[in-house]
Amino acid sequence: MEKQQEALVGPIPDKQDLDLETGSTDINSQAPQSTDPNVVDWDGPDDPENPMNWPPRKKNTIVALISMITFITPLASSVFAPAINQVMTEFKSTDEQLASFIVSVYLLGFCFGPLVLAPLSEMYGRLWIYHICNVLFIIFNVACALAPNLAGLIIFRFLAGIFGCCPLTLGAGSIADIIPQEKRGTAMAFWAMGPIIGPIVGPIAGGYLTQAKDWRWTFWVVAMLSGVITLIGIAFMRETYAYTILEKKTKKLRQETGNEKLRSAADTGVTAQELFKTSIIRPTKMLLFSPIILLLSLYMAIIYGYLYLLFTALPTLYAKQYGFSTGSIGLTYIGSGVGSILGLALSGGLSDRLMRRLTARNGGEPKPEYRLPTMIIASFFVPLGLFVYGWTAEKNLHWILPIVGMGFLGFGMMCAFMGISVYIVDAYTRYAASAMSATTVLRSLVGALLPLVGGRMYNSLGYGWGTSLLAFIAVAMIPVPVIFLMYGEKIRQKTFFNVQIY
């Protein structure tokens, strides 16, 4: 046992080393071994318990399961959208703003959930947070299906959103736990399908489901799909957070050796209460004081808000102007779906290839900024898609043309989401969950609130100038990825912008 204990010794990260902007201490990396026999670390560089050393099949299974969960919960945000007219008729309401709010209140849950789930995952690990949130997500979707009135539907849908945000908040961090930086782009591409493709597939399925059954079945189907994935996840998902794994190893060694002085290499000496307080503040602190997190979150929030605004506008446009049925309206979302898939195909593989090529040019030293070129591509397609959508709808041209505009928007949004997500994960590896929760909060807030003003905007400005206003804002954001590509590293190294963990 003494030899085993000596093989597990390693360094304790110092508080000063845990800096978000200049680089985080990664417990997966192999630092020089400490001479302190009471410090429990990995059992050498090839320790099979280290998530980075897991076999490819195990890693791929976990990435696939996380991606499946991340597909279902965003799908639930929009699958209900085509059914809203039926809901309002059943409950005898004609309030258009209330109708939009019932759809978007789910995203308000996405705003609050990450602020608690991200720090909890960094304290207690990812696995049980996934399982608990998945079960509660199912329960509140069943409650939505049984809702007796609009008030109950709004409350249950909000609670479903709080727990449904879990895979969006933790997914990127889980991938960073097990996939090395140079291969992370492809894995992130599969995970990124959920937040983009899910909201697009949702209305297509929801439209025909509502037409064939009724609006309550949109929630029943979501609950059933989630139940199947949750059972598979309980069987095959494993804890990926290295700090939690080392803490469990330390606890086991204490029991086996009776040595209460043993401590994990991840132990910084901070109490659980202090750590939770710090962790729950961290996402807000990162959002407010890190220019990188703030501007990239704002960029993503704007595009995400545009997508949901157009999602709520499409049923009115195609029902009144083009005479589509409820089921056919769902098919109009295919344009953004095709664009998103093309964006995924381009950005996923291109991100890793660019990372390898630019790293080789830089003497083998990778930089997070090498992930940003895909975002630069996106910055031009987003306003292009908005202009095409707005003016073809304004001039009442062929019904396919606004869908083509949505395709350009979907392509740009996927490239942007991929570039931002992988960049943030690479730059904030240990605290990826907190960093992504900061972006999720702002993105979801804008996605929830912007559709509420969409109807008034189009009534005042029309589809042409109303959508052009959105496009002009997108044009103004084009320099953001270019600036961070050129100066991101210098910004991260400036003391003024360093966001200290403690």
Q: What is the gist of this entry?
A:
By secondary structure, this protein is an all-alpha fold. The protein has helices at 2-7, 56-78, 84-90, 96-124, 127-145, 150-164, 166-178, 184-212, 216-236, 242-257, 272-289, 291-321, 326-331, 334-361, 373-394, 400-427, 432-476, 479-493, and strands spanning 39-40, 263-264. Helix 2 (56-78) runs parallel beside helix 8 (184-212), helix 5 packs antiparallel against helix 9 (216-236) and helix 12 (291-321) packs antiparallel against helix 16.
Reconstruct the topology from this structure.
Elements: H1 2-7, E1 39-40, H2 56-78, H3 84-90, H4 96-124, H5 127-145, H6 150-164, H7 166-178, H8 184-212, H9 216-236, H10 242-257, E2 263-264, H11 272-289, H12 291-321, H13 326-331, H14 334-361, H15 373-394, H16 400-427, H17 432-476, H18 479-493
Parallel strand pairs: 1-2
Task: Please give a structural write-up.
Belongs to the major facilitator superfamily. InterPro entries: MFS, MFS_dom, MFS_trans_sf. One of its GO terms (cellular component) is membrane. Helix content is 74%, strand content 1%. By secondary structure, it is an all-alpha fold. It has a single domain, classed as Growth Hormone, Chain: A. The chain has a two-stranded parallel sheet with strand order 1-2. The longest helix has 45 residues. It is globular and about 75 Å long. The two termini are 35 Å apart.
Which shape, going by the Cα principal axes? globular
Total domain units: 1
Runs in which pLDDT lies below 50 for 5 or more consecutive residues are 1-25
CATH architecture: Up-down Bundle
Look up the CATH topology. Growth Hormone, Chain: A
